[in-house]
Amino acid sequence: MTPTTHPDIRTDEQEENISHLAGNEEEEVRADKSISLKLLESDKKKLKAFFKNLYGYFHHDILYKDVKVSEYKISLTDLTKYLIALELIHEFGGKSEKIEDEQAQLFFTYLPLTGDYDNDNVKGCCLNIIGDFLRLAKNGFKDYSFDYTKKKFSELRYDALVSTIACILNISWKEDEQFYIKTLLLNALHYLGWSTTDELNHQIPNLITRVISKTKQLKQQSYHLGEHLNYFSERVCNALTKAAKKRETKDFSKTATKGQIIYSSIAGIGYCYVYSVTGRNEYCLARPGFEWNENECEYINHFGNIVYSPLPLPYFTIVDL
Known about the structure:
Elements: E1 2-4, H1 11-19, H2 25-63, H3 76-92, E2 96-101, E3 104-109, H4 122-136, H5 147-169, H6 178-193, H7 197-216, H8 225-248, E4 261-264, E5 270-277, E6 282-293, E7 298-300, E8 311-312, E9 317-319
Antiparallel strand pairs: 1-3, 2-3, 4-5, 4-9, 5-6, 6-7, 6-8
Helix pairs in contact: 2-3, 2-4, 3-5, 4-6, 5-6, 5-7, 6-8, 7-8
């Protein structure tokens, strides 16, 4: 709840309140405001519960249920739940309602844009729910028999790609969070979009148009949205296409340094950034979708029941981004 000095309130709200007064105006207006606040808090509680349950389902019930890496394939139901989460983020992220409280006015915010990395703010939901969903997508999607279902799945998957990118771009990332926006965008394009240079060259222009259209529909736009859109269309898409070309021509690398972004299909790690390198050329990698490591304060790869284990990579693709 944040106060404001603006005295204005919508005329229709005033008329609605006045039309229901029966005599003791001060007490009745206060009672009406109290009920409104309770309703808002109830909606916020339901919103947070939805994100909490969805994260628990993706993260604990599927992705990290066992010590081994999950082989689960995303179903149509999973994709639908994910799309609902994205639309709720777009609808309620940063949304505020005006509340009258005696001499002051307060703003009630449903889902703050920033905060800790928990599922009670837009950035936390983006890192956790989107990160986990893209990690799950490493195994692909469930096969369906009926043509109608296949077509609907394909359409929803494309919608998920557009909405995911719009969500990532509409967040104000700090300087030390730039690896998050890079790896999230790269993995979204790779797992929800396309992986070959021919597909990317053919599909990217239309995707950029769709993403721009989606961001124009956002009710709460961040200050950095325009900058991020340019970064996505001019830098990220080109870097992804070049990385795909490297894989196709087998232009692999055998060494990388801390901070570089790499791609590997081993264990489905996807696009990550190098958190550290051992003397034996083993890599500790990080990206949203990996387990959060409290000691390192980072999303670091976990293999088996070890807190985090450096991974030997004989070769990989370095992303020039």
